[in-house]
Structures are given as structure tokens and as C-alpha cells.
Sequence to fold (303 residues):
Amino acid sequence: MTTVRLGINPITWTNDDVPELGGDTPLETCLSETAEAGYAGTELGGKFPRESRALRPILDHYGLALVSGWYDGRICEKEVDEEFEAIRPHLTLLRDLGARRVVYADTSRGRHGAIHEPISQRPKLMDGEWKAYGAKITRLAERFSDFGVGMAFHHHMGTIVETDAEIDRLMHATGEAVGLLYDTGHCAFSGGDPEQLLRRHVERVMHVHCKDVRPAILKKAREADMSFMGAVLQGIFTVPGDGAIDYPTLLNILADQGYSGWLVVEAEQDPAKAHPLTYATMGYRNLKRLAEGAGFYVHERKA
Fold:
């Protein structure tokens, strides 16, 4: 039996990309309700202090660990040394507070406001670019590892690594230093197969984002070529166990592999429609039950 911890992303309460979605919700509410719902840790959000001496006492006050934190990567457009120096302060904060992985998404070639554009308009790599791209990401990930933080590469809607086929190419083109952030909801939204994707790459999974999808809205979003944020506002995502994704199967695959990291509820919704504490609590209870059903021991937050 392997041990996992359950965390949550503050996007449940406040969306950094769309300030009208919970922008007036203070950090204290996010953290107090994270603890109230039962989670052991939180990922970073835009309202968090960016120096460890300021953030540590805040997290300690709520009894929460720092799980990880998103970084808008640009390695496709930059050299390794330049990208590493740009991310160094972020890695330092994570390392100083005990987080062992960074959520790294490559948002290269994207345009400001792209989350509001049709999903078909995203940037893509050409076939001849993948080999060099993979080598560059591998070198960057090795620098991260030497610094003490692993790279959990986040496949994400609207980016150059979105589909199952692109994730396959990324994994084949990169070395072991590049871990996979497996995101159930982004896989489903992109038209992928969450189970088969996980079976192919479970040995590379470093971090897991757990969200669910509402199938009727997923179908509508893909048929209408909605924007990413348009689909979010329609309610495409919800918490694990409240949608169509087969979590028992996915968690069994992870358990059989001996996964022992964090399972993070990261399910962006409109907080005016999806009451944050209600959904955070639902997500915790569902995910804990499902994880234990797969044979995991869930390490709970110290009160």
C-alpha cells in the first residue's frame, strides 16, 4: 500500500486568468476553506506571497503544505540558460517550502487572451521540431532536478502539448528527468482517452491533477469549437466523482504503479455558480473514498 496526500488548487476560489471569477476572494478564505475541507496542502495561486519567509507562516497557520505551483514556461522560444534563470525564483520558493515538483506548462507561441479563442486556434509544433524540442526540455528538466525540484510537465488545452498524440511525442522525445503531470480533465477535453494515456505513461507520472468533466458540456464545447474559458464558464469541469471520468480505473493504475505523490483537485468553475467550499469538500470526500478504494493510504492533514 502506497501513501498519497490530497491537495487542491486555489482556482476553486479565484481564477488568476479571469479576475471576475473570485477576484475579490481573499487568500485567507481560500486557505481556511482548504483546511476546513480536509486537504493537506495547496498549490500556489496569484494571491500568494512569493517569498518563503512571508508564505511559510501563513501556510503553517492553516496547517497546510505547499504542494507545487504553476509556471508559464517558454522553453520553445528561449534557450535553456535563459529559461532557467527566469524560473529560478519560482523554483527557490517551492524548494524552500518543501515542494518537490513544479507544474511546468509551455505556453510558447500563445497570444495574450488565447484562452478566449476557439480551441482549434492553438499553436502547434511541426513534425521536424519535436526532436530538438524534447532535447531542450530534457536539459531544462535536468537543471531543475539538480536544483532540487522536479519538472512535472503539464499538458494543457490551448498549448503546444495538448492531445494524447502530442503527449506521446513529448514522452518519447524527452529523458527521464521530464516527469508528466497527468491531468484527467485536460486529456478528456482534448478528445483523448484518460485510461489509455495513463497506461502508456504511468511510469513517468510525477504529479496528478484531478478534475472531472460534464459530458454534455464536453460534447457541446468540442462541437462548437468553444474557447477554453468559454467551456469553463459553461461548466465543463467539476470535481472528481461528479462527472464522467472513470476514477476507480485510473486510481487503480496509479496504485499498481506505486504512485506516492499528491493527488490535487484542480477543477476550475465559476465560483458564483459552484460554491467553492461545497465543491472543495465534495472533491475531498470523493477523492479520498476513491483513492482508498484503489488501495492507497491517504495521509490526512494534521489538525
